[in-house]
Amino acid sequence: MDAVFAQKLIEKTQDYYEQRAQDFSASRQRDWPLFISFANYIKKGDRVLDLGCGNGRLYPLVSQKGASYLGVDASKRLLQEAKRDYGSAEFQAGNILDLKLPPQSFDVAVLIAVLHHIPSRALRQEALCNAAKLVKAGGLVLLTNWNLFQTKFCSLRLRYNLKKVLGKNKMDFNDVLYKEKRYYHGFTKREIGRLLQNAGLRVVENYYEKDGIKTDRWKGQNLVTVGRK
Question: Strands 68-73, 90-93: parallel, antiparallel or unpaired by DSSP?
């Protein structure tokens, strides 16, 4: 994908979240069953980095586990929502493609619904390498990404792929603009696994889930991946 076009897609998605921060935050208040699975990877005393933290809703789980927390997001308005709801937590503005944090300073890095918003394989690899550099040896990187191969998204994904074949779509294969407003990339398990390996991470888990329960590719709402450094 052309680098200039990729940057435009990043800005388009960031603008969506900035403009709709309050409504988006209101829709992300309930506990997510998948968080319970992630809790198994967090221990008392861990330092947890929540990259693309949004409104900070992962913080209560991290706090309950007795771990320290830092939430980072590119959206200033979403960070305002996070600070309002979780004033005792630490948040800061930041971009996963340009992180200003000390290397190997966290035990766990969490990327919930983040990597699928990054256009081009090169930038996705860069983002994941950045995250991997921040965790200690033996540390974990936990990811969730929308599963665009589930039945309800197949027609949307195939429509954009057909446009790509016809030369009418400058995005890559399995890229979509959801409701023409947000960029998403649809990962396969093999693809996300290779990205982790290239970032120096060993794949511990890689599965589809729906409502916190493992399922198949066609039913899964999210692709969940766990890598260990």
Answer: parallel
Mean pLDDT in residue range 92-102:
94
DSSP assignment string, 129-196: HHHHHHEEEEEEEEEEEE-TTSHHHHHHHHHHHHHHHTT---SPTTEEEETTTEEEE---HHHHHHHH
pLDDT tens per residue, range 154-198: 999 999 999 999 999 999 999 999 988 899 999 999 999 999 999
Structure tokens at 50: 């929540």
**What pLDDT does residue 18 have?**
87
- Section 219-225 average pLDDT: 96
DSSP state of 17: H
The pTM assigned to this predicted structure is 0.94
Taking the C-alpha atoms of residue 138 and residue 149, their distance in angstroms, rounded to an integer, is 31
Which uninterrupted H or E stretch holds 127?
helix 121-134
For helices 76-85 and 3-19, the axis angle rounded to 10 degrees is 40
Q: In what order do the strands lie in the sheet with 47-51?
A: 90-93, 68-73, 47-51, 106-112, 135-146, 222-228, 202-210, 213-215
| Predicted local distance difference test score (pLDDT) of residue 149 | 97
Q: Are strands 175-178 and 202-210 parallel, antiparallel or unpaired?
A: unpaired
Cβ–Cβ under 8 Å, residues 155 and 120: no
